[in-house]
Fold this sequence. Notes:
The chain has helices at about 10-20, 30-35, 95-100, 120-130, 130-150, 150-160, 165-170, 180-195, 210-220, 220-235, 260-275, 310-325; strands spanning about 5, 40-45, 50, 60-65, 70-75, 80-85, 90, 105-110, 110-120, 180, 200-210, 245, 250-255, 295-305, 330-335. It is an alpha+beta fold. Helix 9 crosses helix 10 (about 220-235). The longest helix has 21 residues, at about 130-150.
Amino acid sequence: MITGASLLKHSEENVNFLKNVAVFSLLSPEETAMILHHFDFVEIGGNRTLFREGDKGNELFIIKSGKVRTSISLSGGEEKDIASFTSGDFFGEMSIFDDEPRSATCRTVEKTELVILKGESLFEMIETNPEISIKIMYRMLNITTRRLRDTGEFLSDMVQWGEEARKRTITDELTGVYNRRFLEESFTQIFESARRNSKPLSMVMADLDDFRQINEIYGHEKGDRVILEVVGIFRRHLRDTDILARYGGDEFTVLMPDTDLDAAMEISERIRSDVERLDLLNDPAGVSHSMHRVTASQGLACYPDTADSGESLKESADRALYKAKESGRNRVFCEGIG
């Protein structure tokens, strides 16, 4: 539980504040005064953690003054800010109602005055003042629904349904690897971490050669099987700290932190070789054709060897993939080394 300097409950001042908070807008001043004793008023210094993602939650917070920032953890250990709360905003209610762990971390940005309603106080208020509580809950439901809708699908799922839903929004349904959304949202932080720590960061853009023909000749079920087998090969050669994302149908992007150009080239070549050895394509009944193997082309770039910024890293890998395709497919290409 958080600690802070308790503030005296100057009834008139606090009633005036609460009646101007949207959650209490249906209450009369007299009704607000009747429930005031259920709340704690505290002052917290800046840069203080109110709760962390995964903590058990038993408190609802309303900001009287100051600012609170909320963030979530990414797979690489970094945190991503997703929302800010200021005077009159409330947060933390979902953990009380659903009895679920906190789905995000909340910290004060500056000295902040908070109005805190503990879970047991909430349920006591519901029992002793049911009509007032119904009004509060009605407004809270409306505000929470609107807030979740306005902040988008990702935040909505994360706050309402917790970690499992958050994973679903950033992973590919077929393969379970990260999706394009996660890659685009996390790339800047991953690159900046490499730059700040003077570490190399290799990037590979890959796609399967003539994958459209595989779907046309063998059907989409076989195409999905090919995708899953290729993902398995990537996973066998990549580390837990590497990031594999399915960027499109048969397009993949790999980020390899702390991996220089030579090491990345060696890993990519092993992946290429194993994909080439897959034995999945046989002639469908009554159809004869010349496409009997799966191959992949890969474009490789590395910071700082072949790129000096995040954007140039992506552009270099993209150009390298194009040249791998243009020069015959089933190869790994990197600008500057061929």
